[in-house]
Design a protein that fits this description.
single chain; alpha+beta; two-stranded antiparallel sheet; two-stranded antiparallel ribbon; flat; Znf_DBF; zinc ion binding; nucleic acid binding; zinc-finger; zinc
Length: about 170
């Protein structure tokens, strides 16, 4: 005889009729309670979950209507108001949205980004003029043996260096 176990408490033993597989067992300290009215494919040892059957009542939350730009306390009541319906019927209130949609539909989204044309005004500046504009921006102060010399801009400082032969 193979290994066997003697159960002292209530147990459940599930075994194979042909004894090809090892049996599965579970020993309980207190006897399991079977729930025989459980739905199909549900565990007969667990209590059934209770689901809400009726529709839940949504609480009334205050909000802001983006159509007529007003605050409301109850959305369903606000939508039924005369002012909201009249605003929604007026087509002139949605001209900007219609314009955006029409322009968006005319763009081919499958085109590559490189093929899109961008219009920028670029002004050509000679490199000397560009450097002079940059050099005229900042102030420079230097300390040397003669004392502190202040220059209004970097360009003056560079010219003084050239004159003194530094």
């Amino acid at each position: 005889m193979k290994n066997f176990k003697i159960f002292k408490n209530p147990y459940i033993l599930i075994g194979d009729v042909k004894d090809k597989h090892q049996p599965f067992y579970k020993e309980y300290t207190k006897p399991p309670r079977l729930i025989l009215n459980s739905p199909m494919l549900c565990c007969p040892f667990q209590e059934n979950k209770r689901f809400r059957t009726g529709p839940t009542k949504k609480s009334k939350k205050p909000g802001y209507c983006e159509v007529c730009y007003t605050k409301y306390n109850d959305y369903n009541q606000h939508v039924l108001e005369y002012e909201h319906r009249e605003f929604a019927k007026d087509h002139s209130n949605f001209l900007k949205v219609d314009f955006f949609i029409n322009n968006f539909n005319s763009i081919n989204l499958n085109e590559e980004v490189d093929s899109m044309t961008v219009s920028l005004k670029i002004q050509e500046i000679s490199s000397d003029l560009a450097y002079e504009n940059i050099l005229n921006i900042s102030k420079v102060s230097t300390d040397n043996e003669e004392g502190e010399m202040e220059y209004e801009n970097i360009n003056q400082f560079l010219n003084s260096i050239k004159k003194h032969g530094m």
